[in-house]
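As promised in the previous annual report, we have extended the structural survey to additional targets. Below is the entry for Probable malate:quinone oxidoreductase.
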Amino acid sequence: MSSTTPESSSSVDVVLIGGGVMSATLGVFLRQLQPDWSISIFERLDSVAEESSDAWNNAGTGHSALCELNYTPQNADGSVDITKAVGVNEAFQISRQFWSHLVENGVIASPRDFITPVPHMSFVWGDANVDFLRRRHEALSAHPLFAGMAYSEDPAQLAEWMPLVMKDRTPGQALAATHTLNGTDVNYGALTRLLFSYLVETAGCPLHTRHDVQDIKRGPDGRWQVLVQDMRLNTQRTVNARFVFIGSGGGALSLLQKTGIPEAKGVGGFPVSGQFLRCTNPEIVAQHKAKVYGKASVGAPPMSVPHLDTRMIDGKPALLFGPYAGFSTRFLKYGSLMDLPRSIRADNITAMLAVARDNWPLTKYLIQQVMQSNSERMSALRDFVPTARSKDWELVVAGQRVQIIKKDAKKGGVLQFGTEVISSKDGSVAALLGASPGASTAAPIMLTVLKQCFADKLPEWEAKLKEMVPSYGQTLANNPDLCAQLREKTTKVLQLA
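The corresponding structure token record, generated without further manual editing, is:
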């Protein structure tokens, strides 16, 4: 998707920075809620959805905590805490409702262009892990958001659920898995392009690719002055905006710092890169039709939970395994090696040094991952696919993630694994920082942006918001009937049955 004709005015109501799923989602929300507002979008690359939203750059799971074990930590007494899993699943249900609204109203013509039903599984081995998974299933399956989750330790049942994983596996090993048919695969790159297509072609919002936002500062009138460079023509111009959203992935931190808002003080970033093994043999790809997640290694970040992942990309099935984490000083896949050094400021260096001091297991893990040989990567794959051959798999570079570092009164600084909206007190600028669960929760995250930045408009927008997200203002976790009703409806609209 290329740039549209530049708008004649240098003043707009809203500027969206970044051509990813976050900017696209917020843009659609605002266009639906306030169609008279002018919206301009700026993307540094040649087209939208080329960074973290691209299908090859993210896991595409449709994070709903059905299979991701890192969302259900085990307590010291052996019980399993499902609090975060419930929150993540509820957030994904909001995304499903939002997407269903767009399908029903013709914004998206065919849901199968971006979302596909795929079983979600958790798989473990070893007595202690089997006990953990059994407890996890007992806790989750009793909750309405996780209704229908099955559990088994029977090798015959496991072979039916995941034949590739069980083929030629050593007999007698303690194994267990959970299985649910409510899972999905989401191509966030395709979804992003669909949303921007609506914004540009139907809503008339100018999209400027190959435009790099270089500075954001307050103007004398209180509006934000956004300095943009046209990378094709090597020219600059300033766009004035009442509201600016910085949704440029790892690049959001540096732009947030340039705003000078007090809320950005003390915030830093820790970049983590990723790689996957991609199967090149169609016969093997056809043998596996599920997302199978295992347990992360000690010291591994949440985004590094190993999984054997069925994907649907450009209408074709694909099979990935990983991720293998790594370290780069880039904040974006197509960023600069100077991104990390340039992000260090007097107000965040203490927090960043404290995180470096307190996170040696993570540092050690990343060093080990960077130094891995292909045979070591294949060894990890064979824990999931005993019959895996090197000739059937190739290494691909995934997206770049930047975890949030924030000041902490006791520790000096803490490394956060998640996403966070940071906005100015007056709500005129907001930035999204962080990683997982990321794209899967774009809709609820953008509802957070609306609440933080447009509180005065919410009463006026409430009826429309409830039309777009029927559970708006309610909690599905505490309303089993509404949960079942909306799951049934979104399953039908999104063609997931």
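The chain has a mean pLDDT of 91. The chain has one domain: 11-478. These points will be discussed at the next consortium meeting with the crystallography subgroup.
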